[in-house]
Amino acid sequence: MVEILSQEEIEALLASLSGSEEMAQPAAGAPGAVPQMPGVGKADRRAPIAYEVYDFRRPDKFSKDQLRTMQMLHETFARLFSSTLSAYLRAPVHIDLISVEQIPYDEYIRAITSSLINIFSMQPLSGQALLEIEFDVIISMIDRLLGGPGTVVKRSQPALTDIERPLVENVVDRALSALRTAWEGIVSFTPIREGMETSAQFVQIVPPNDIVVSILFEIRVGETHGAMSLCIPYLLLKPVLSKLSAQRWFSGSKRAPSQHAVLIAQQIQQTRVPLVAVLGSTRLTLRQILDLKEGDVILLTRRTNEPIDIMVGNKVKFRARPGLRGKHVVVQIEKVVANQPVAKPNPPPSST
Length: 352
Description:
The strands form two sheets. The chain has a six-stranded antiparallel sheet with strand order 1-5-6-3-2-4. Strands 7-8-9-10 form a four-stranded antiparallel sheet, with no helix packed on it. It is built from nine helices and ten strands. The protein folds into two domains: about 210 residues, Chemotaxis protein chec; about 70 residues, Surface presentation of antigens (SPOA), CATH 2.30.330.10. Helices cover about 35% and strands about 25% of the residues.
């Protein structure tokens, strides 16, 4: 059977509860007493006040979703630039995204020590942005482009010669091309390189207190590693802030394959491949080759009135006729050959 409280027991229980609450509250007029405000209950007086720390020197201009979208954008940029740079330097290049944060421009500039700073615009967006690469990494790239192993030689001053500057400009142009491709899902722009500085004090694209997005990367070229960063001001990105959402980026990524296919096709069309005109072939013994001297005639397997083979790579692609144009030896394409393997030379004619 469930025990049921009587009316007297219920009143006694309520009286004990009200007595304990009065003991917990300081008496009215006593030191430390909290005056009763009209219309405010006990629960309201006891509720903690919620507040959030806000630094007026570093106001938040970008939401967490927008920063997350920019993180995904520049992870794509890191992959594109590393693959492009690996092919250009003919060396393994790894680029990893470290952080994406919004800071005052003055704080970003003061963190730069010995680096090469490239100023570029993002037309039709209004304003300028920065691409910064540590000078040791730049020196390693230059050494590889000039045929070296990528050795870093310390210099008294971070400066480029007239020969080194065009090489570095080619590297920067490849970085800006990868940046444009990575942003295609959000906004289409044309990056234009506008300047190159080795001293941060001469670079002032926005006022010191303006907020910028600082995107920090770690770049490794062979055995050399260092830092690379992008600085994009808030005012430059303000017109496209509404598009900086993960949903918009993913929807743009679905359309990207067709755009990438066009870009890849353009790059393939500009690729240089060796084209060889084979006038004929024969077989000689090693003794015959060693006995050759100036004025000797080598008998080829092809007649003078027969078309010659034009080879692309290791396959015959065209038939042509040799001839002259002025002082130059030329060939005239007469036929396109499809899927024909390399012609093997006939056995050497018997000799006595």
